[in-house]
Amino acid sequence: MHFEQTNEWARFQQAVGRRVYAISSSRVTLLNEGRDVEEGEGAAIEKKIFTCLRYWEVNGGMPVPGMGFAHAAQVLLEAGKKAGAVFVRWTPSREFPISNFQFPILKNSEVVEPRVLIRQVPPKATLIVDLAKDEGTLLQEMHEKTRYNIRLAERKGVRANTMSVQEGFDAFWTLMQETARRDRIGLHAQDYYRKMLEILNGDAVRAHLFLAAHDGVSLATALLITCGDTATYLHGGSSNEARNLMAPHLLQWRMMQFAKAQGCRWYDMWGVAPFVRNEQGAMNSAHAWAGITRFKMGFGGEVREGIGTVDIMCRPLLYSFLAFLRRMRF
Questions:
Q1: Best CA proximity match to 309, nearest among 82, 67, 125, 36
Q2: Res. 282 pLDDT band, cuts 50 70 90
Q3: Contact (Cβ atoms closer than 8 angstroms) between residue 103 and residue 77
Q4: Would you indicate the residue range of the signal peptide (predicted)?
Q5: Cβ(57)–Cβ(44) below 8 Å
Q6: Distance, CA of 128 to CA of 134 (rounded, Å)
Q7: Is 169 in the same domain as 211?
């Protein structure tokens, strides 16, 4: 099961002030302290637009396990309408086949590619490393430069380890802010990450905080989610200082080793550019994710591309108006 469809993730979302709904083919139920997502149900997270409008987000699978795409889309449409959502943003898991796939088109074409909140669309492609291989093979399948940078960091005395919230959160937050300023990316509120670490602490789903440091100075950080047979690199940041020590490379390798020791089969890099090469076969440097994609692909693995994300319009006129505002803004 995808970690965003677990009860642990639902409780975390509730802790940061969001409503969570359990969806089945026959009912929609608002979760509370005495109600979890049950077998045969999916989870939808309610989010806000302009503080007064709402939309739903369903990530990592079908709204009801085993349901077909067209039926699932219809269930989400009807459930979103009942809850007053403007739209339902649905991202099925990457396990579904994508060859010649087309999203189901409902009556009046309520199913569309995202036209609003584009930056919040989950990544369509990711990089998956098979941790069933021994460490020697994993290293051998990495890019030569990546292996070199890992060994360089080790020789220079960089240390990368998992840390408790009490030990490492301040350094994590400092590095995340530094990365956001440098790369001009958005962040969640500080309390969002802290609650993630505090609440996702069970056997089924757990958030792990990692730090890489040199001579007591923190240089790189990451949040890793373990759920079932998969470890997911969800958030990360690095310092502007001592970049020649290659701390992020060693940090990724230590997280892979950790995930393997925890019994995980797969290491999910959580997002790469879906088209990473140009017509000449070289990296397409114009893509917004070209830099991070180049870094991640150095660790080997296989790019897996899902069917992407769709918006199911529950209030089509209002959705179209929001899309119009976005076009006027940009």
A1: 125
A2: low
A3: no
A4: none
A5: yes
A6: 16
A7: yes
What average pLDDT does range 185-197 have in this prediction? 96
d(CA 64, CA 302): 28
pTM: 0.90
Strand partners, 207: 225
Phi, psi of 265 (to 5 degrees): -90, -35
- In whole angstroms, give the CA distance from residue 17 to residue 274: 32
Instruction: Please report where in the chains the tokens 């302009």 appear, as a residue.
Output: 50
| Sign of the dihedral defined by the CA atoms of residues 319, 322, 328, 330, in that order | negative
CATH code for the domain of 69:
3.40.630
Residues contacting residue 92 through CB under 8 Å, at least 6 positions apart:
60, 61, 62, 69, 306, 307
Claim to verify: residue 237 and residue 131 sit in the same structural domain: yes
Same domain membership, residue 276 and residue 166: yes
* Tokens read off for 301: 């693995």
Helix, strand and coil percent figures for the chain, each rounded to 5: 35, 25, 40
Residue type, 108: N
Q: Which amino acid is at 243?
A: R
Per-residue pLDDT tens over the stretch 100-112 = 455 555 555 788 8
Residue with tokens 């069970």: 202
**How many domains in the chain?**
2
- Dihedral of alpha carbons 13, 15, 16, 19, sign: positive
Reported as a pLDDT band with limits 50, 70 and 90, residue 137 is very high
Contact 232, 60 (CB under 8 A): no
CATH number of the domain within which 139 lies: 3.40.630.30
How far apart CA 174 and CA 181 sit, in angstroms, is 11
Q: Are residues 15 and 78 in the same domain?
A: yes
DSSP 103: P
Strands (E), 67-216: 87-91, 111-112, 125-130, 159-163, 205-214
